[in-house]
Design brief:
It is built from no helices and eight strands. The chain has 81 residues and is mostly beta strands. The chain has one domain: Jelly Rolls (Sandwich), CATH 2.60.120. A four-stranded antiparallel sheet has the order 3-8-5-6, with no helix packed on it. A two-stranded antiparallel sheet has the order 1-2. The chain has a two-stranded antiparallel ribbon with strand order 4-7.
Length: 81
């Protein structure tokens, strides 16, 4: 159900990991920071809000979210989709 726990690596090489996730719940209890790599998140379904220390950003189906390395963030989903 959790955004981070639902991640599964499907393709990987020395430069990039492609990870699929199907979270059902927002990360309400904590924020997350990836200190190893930038993250590019494609939203395949649903809507929500990306909350960062730089501000909040609404997202929807078809959006790409670029989270640079070291940015503290969490994702709030509007629905279970």
């Amino acid at each position: 159900n959790d955004y981070l726990d639902s991640r599964k690596v499907v393709l990987t090489n020395s430069d990039c990991n492609i990870i699929l996730a199907a979270p059902k719940e927002s990360t309400r209890d904590y924020f997350y920071k990836n200190t190893d790599a930038d993250e590019l998140i494609f939203v395949h379904k649903g809507t929500g809000k990306l909350r960062t220390m730089l501000g909040n950003l609404d997202f929807k189906y078809g959006d790409y979210l670029l989270v640079p390395r070291g940015i503290i963030y969490k994702m709030d989903f509007d629905t279970e989709d």
